[in-house]
Design brief:
Organism: Pokkaliibacter plantistimulans
Largest sheet: 6 strands, mixed
Pfam family, one: ECH_1
Bound molecules: ligand T3D
Strand content: 15-25%
Keywords: Lyase
Helix content: 40-55%
Distance between the termini: 31 Å
Order of helices and strands: EEHEEHEEHEEHHEHEHHHH
Radius of gyration: 19 Å
InterPro entries: ClpP/crotonase-like_dom_sf, Enoyl-CoA_hydra/iso, Enoyl-CoA_hydra_C, PaaB1
Protein name: Enoyl-CoA hydratase
Length: 262
């Protein structure tokens, strides 16, 4: 039923594949609507315990579809703030708040918002031939989709500033070395590797993983004292899950745990 993406659920994993390969999976308004719809379905589906995002073709995502922007001299300038408010910000907020892990498999070039959408995911794999570009500066824009927040945290202020201002293309290997992503893998192995991790995560204590996600995100603004308090509160919640009970019981009985996600 989708035109610009593919969406499926199997073995507890929702797979969202950006599918406008001729435009390197850049976002037009319709693709935004479809991604929104798919993420809503994933959140509502109790079977889903992990989300995998990837792209078809030689690119992962080239950010905003620039052919959708009328910048002719006689045209009214588009309100990019409205575009961010309506589409990109809700997308990043959703990815960050989904109560299960989000894995990104970056299959090719990730430019502009495409790069920062990847960095908003919890665990990022990239194909060796993939690359990352903060392309915004080249057309007079500012990194969006959380880039000015995630980049300094991922690579520190010196590298974040140069990446944002120079717009250099960073290879997947370099991105791994700098800690921008979890792992760079051979092209042919990307999808299998990412799927394997996603399927593994979908068998794990999902509520516990969601609490880990919350704790790590909160750490970027909390003091140690606040974070210690938060860990206490989240551990209290984690300790009330069936999966915690199962985890300890399985350990003591020297058997493999069977987690149900709550
Ligand atoms: O507007 C708002 O709502 C504000 C929000 C902004 C968010 C943003 O993401 S702004 C940044 C937008 N993205 C870019 O500036 C990146 C533009 N693309 C590129 O710089 C290059 O395409 C790449 C570096 C990503 C890849 O280069 P290359 O040489 O491998 O491929 P290519 O030949 O440039 O692209 C292949 C095709 O995809 C080509 O179409 P064609 O000639 O084969 O018909 C190209 O036009 C198209 N394409 C690539 N990126 C975009 C795009 N078409 C529309 N929009 C794109 N962003």
């Amino acid at each position: 039923s989708f035109q610009h993406i593919e969406y499926s659920v199997e073995q507890g994993v929702a797979i969202l594949t950006l599918n406008r390969p001729a435009a390197l999976n850049s976002f037009n308004a319709d693709m935004h609507l479809e991604v929104k719809d798919a993420l809503k379905q994933a959140r509502a589906n109790e079977q889903v315990r992990c989300l995998l995002i990837t792209g078809n073709g030689r690119g992962f995502c080239a950010g905003q579809d620039l052919s959708d922007r009328n910048v002719a001299a006689d045209a009214d300038m588009p309100d990019l703030g409205a575009s961010i408010e309506k589409n990109y910000n809700p997308l990043i907020r959703t990815l960050r708040s989904l109560p299960f892990p989000v894995i990104c498999a970056v299959n090719g070039v990730a430019a502009g918002a495409g790069a920062n959408i990847a960095f908003a995911c919890d665990i990022v794999f990239a194909a060796r031939s993939a690359s990352f570009i903060q392309a915004f500066c080249k057309i007079g824009l500012v990194p969006d989709s959380g880039g000015t927040w995630t980049l300094p945290r991922l690579v520190g202020p010196a590298r974040a500033t140069a990446l944002a201002m120079l717009g250099d293309k960073i290879s997947a290997e370099q991105a791994e070395q700098w800690g921008m992503i979890w792992r760079c893998v051979e092209d042919a192995e990307l999808l299998d590797t990412a799927l394997q991790s996603a399927r593994h995560l979908a068998t794990q204590p999902t509520t516990g993983l969601a609490l880990i996600k919350r704790a790590l995100q909160a750490s970027s603004t909390n003091t140690l004292d606040q974070q210690l308090d938060l860990e206490r509160d989240l551990q209290r919640l984690a300790g009330r899950t069936e999966d915690y009970r199962e985890g300890v019981a399985a350990f003591m009985q020297k058997r493999k745990p069977e987690f149900r996600g709550h």
